[in-house]
Amino acid sequence: MLGFCLGVITASLLSLFLPIVPPFFSIFLAMLILLLLARRHAMLFSVGVGAICFMASLSWQYQQRQLAAAALLAPGTTLMQVVITSPPITYPEYTQLNATVQSGPARGYKVKLRWQQPPALAAGQHWRLQARLKPIHGYANPGSVNATAQALVSGLVAEGHVTRGPHILLAQQQLWRQQLVARLDSAIAPYASAPLLKALAVGERAFSRQLWRGAQHAGLGHLLAISGLHVGLVFGWVLWLSGCSKGLIAIRRQQLLALLAALTAALLYAWLADFAIPTLRASIALTMLVVCRSQLTRLSPNRFWLLLVAMLLLLQPFWVLSTSFWLSVLAVAIIFFVLWRFPLSGLHWQARIKYFFVFHLVLSLLMTLLGSMLFGGFSPLMLLSNLLFVPWCSLVAIPLLLVSLLLTLSGLDASWLWQLTDVAFRPLLYWLIYSADLPLWWPLGQASALLMALLALLVTIALLVQRNAMLLLPLSLVLLSGSALQPPRWQLHVLDSGQRQLVLLQQGKRALLLDAAPALAQQDLNDTVLSPVLRRLGISQLDYLLFRQQRPDRNRHWTLLTDYPVAAQNLQAFSEQAGAASCQNLPAAYYDVRIEVLLSDNRVLNNKPDHCILRFTLGRWRVLLPGIITPAIERELLAGDIELAADIMLLANNGSAAVNSLALLQQVRPVLALNSAAFMNGYGHPAQAVQQRLALLAVPLLNTADYGAITLGFDDHELQISSWRDQILPLWLEKPPAIAETLTTTR
């Protein structure tokens, strides 16, 4: 059994680096070869069987998903029967809903739909809809969520919009869970900590921007989402209460009854959280524990952990792509390790209190290290926050919440208990609000992440030999924070942001931001694109913000100013003046970068002045940013005596054929062309004609829809090019064509 589990886990990690998912029939060939080669080596054979079982599960589920996706993504409009699985989210332009397909080859898989001007929608409704779907393809930026991998984990196969046509409401079920959530909402409405109470009661985190920011800065995001920690707390508390009833219940199988009661309570709590994936994993783990204990099977913690991880990966092999999965299982491994390495030395109360603090200190230090590796950085408040609030919430706040929740759902008046629960959660609420105003995040580059992983291995080995080795960890974190500083060279990031051009010019912690959004753009990309990028890249100061068609009523991106300080004069200039005037306020030099305003458009487009044309010079490299221009502006550029030569050019108008003419490209003579466009956009950008013009001039084109965020690193003689989508694991996810890693200038 040990070899089998090791084989499953090893194969799951190696599968991340496979170029393709192996065909299912090839698994049987591998099994035959294994039988011939390893029949005399039992351990090797067991490891091989485990690896083959994982690959078979991965291959089978991947093929089934591909068949479901092919059925839904056939050309044209798809007619399908779905059930809405969660409350729809309403935006000004449309309503977004998550639904599960109820018929056809895609039965049981999920789709994400947008519906403009829909009827009244609610969870539990069954609809027959006509929709136009496309593959899952989210933004690929530093710090962003891997949308394709997340879709594999959650069972999402397509997204799209509901088209016009006859849509039939087949049935409407009133879900019990939604009724209970409504009852909870009315019970906690008067309290300031209501968002925290709801998040930890039913798993719905309707947090304000301030609370989200505070959770990130404090490193307490794991505590504010129902996970294995919370489900395990319910199981543990009910098991402890059942143990206190010994002698009161005259039943032979007292232990079995206690285990079943604890498991039932944990499953009900997971159901209240809508069986979110972390709670589903915890439910499987607790069920395995109860089965082992009820059968009087004694497994050591390390063997139980290996069996648990192997079973989870066999049931759902796509969980190997989930960061939360590895955070959960490695956190359990750390707990087992600490319990084994630091056992309780005495039974008196002083020894118990000492052990409690030592256990949480060591656990918090190791979890800080783990979180830094998985999330690409850490907050200095993370260790202190976990030391303060994990014990407090585990022993006081969450038990009070669960008792209040139980009484409320039972129909009893628990208002006095909710007041006490609110008081218990107030310190956490105030800490999050305080942390929100502290922009504390130390990002780790790729080299620092590797150092962190090596440090974790060394600390683990040292702990096996000497307990005091843990004292090296805080010093190591301080040293790594120094290595987290960004390299001093200049970098230009063209972000993956759909039909808008978001460009960051960065050196270390400072940056210049340009946003050439479409004239009718209403979406604020701060939460989905900019904040994760700035956090991941370690940018804490935006020196200049340049927007196209600035309007006081749009108020786009100014929420950034709560996180990233901008000089007052720049804020006033760029928020109140029009695009052309903003360009004139740009300095001629930004540190050692030369900024040229080649043409400031004073014409009026859509009642607002339009964007200007910029060129950056970084050492020997020149970057042309035309932004959004008209054919008339392009003709003026070509007719004038403006020297347009540049090494890199960001195509105007997202690669539209109306501009980016062959004459303009010949005058610019770029060695590399970049473009920002949405995946499968309705405009056909970049236009086929533009691609042909670039091919005629032998200029390579990199498009963000294919490559994700594109980063250019500028050295004196080389231009280093990297794309974010190329760096995403697993390798068998759809990748863009290969690009040259460096270019050399001849100018």
What would your notes on this structure say?
This protein is an alpha+beta fold and 747 residues long. Among the domains are: 2-72, no CATH class; 79-174; 346-378 and 444-485, no CATH class; 491-744, Metallo-beta-lactamase, Chain A. 47% of the residues lie in helices and 16% in strands. The strands form five sheets. It has a seven-stranded mixed β-sheet with strand order 13-12-11-10-23-24-25. Strands 14-15-18-19-20-21-22 form a seven-stranded mixed β-sheet. A hairpin with an 8-residue loop joins β3 (95-101) and β4. The longest helix is centred in the first third of the chain and has 31 residues, at 42-72. The radius of gyration is 28 Å and the shape is globular. Residues 20-162 form the DUF4131 domain. It is a multi-pass membrane protein.
Q: By CATH's scheme, which homologous superfamily of the domain at 491-744 applies?
A: Ribonuclease Z/Hydroxyacylglutathione hydrolase-like
Give the strand content. Answer: 15-25%
CATH class of the domain at 491-744: Alpha Beta
| CATH A-level architecture of the domain at 491-744 | 4-Layer Sandwich
Radius of gyration: 28 Å
- Across the major sheet, the strand order is 13-12-11-10-23-24-25
Main location: membrane
Keywords: Cell membrane, Membrane, Transmembrane, Transmembrane helix
Subcellular location: Cell membrane
Domain ComEC/Rec2-related protein: 200-465
List keywords for this structure.
alpha+beta
Could you give a quick summary of the protein structure above?
The chain is of the alpha+beta class.
SSE blueprint and pairings:
Blueprint: H1 2-15, H2 24-37, H3 42-72, E1 78-84, E2 89-90, E3 95-101, E4 110-115, E5 125-134, H4 147-154, E6 156-162, E7 168-172, H5 176-188, H6 194-202, H7 209-218, H8 228-244, H9 254-272, H10 277-294, H11 301-315, H12 323-341, H13 349-375, E8 377-378, H14 381-409, H15 415-436, E9 442-443, H16 446-465, H17 472-483, E10 491-494, E11 501-507, E12 510-516, H18 526-537, E13 541-547, H19 568-576, H20 579-584, E14 589-590, E15 593-599, E16 604-605, E17 608-609, E18 613-618, E19 621-625, H21 631-639, E20 648-650, H22 662-668, E21 672-675, H23 688-696, E22 701-703, H24 704-707, E23 710-714, E24 718-723, E25 742-744
Parallel strand pairs: 4-6, 12-13, 19-20, 20-21, 21-22
Antiparallel strand pairs: 1-3, 1-5, 2-3, 3-4, 5-6, 5-7, 8-9, 10-11, 10-23, 11-12, 14-15, 15-18, 16-17, 18-19, 23-24, 24-25
Domain ComEC/Rec2-related protein: 200-465
Organism: Arsukibacterium ikkense
Subcellular location: Cell membrane
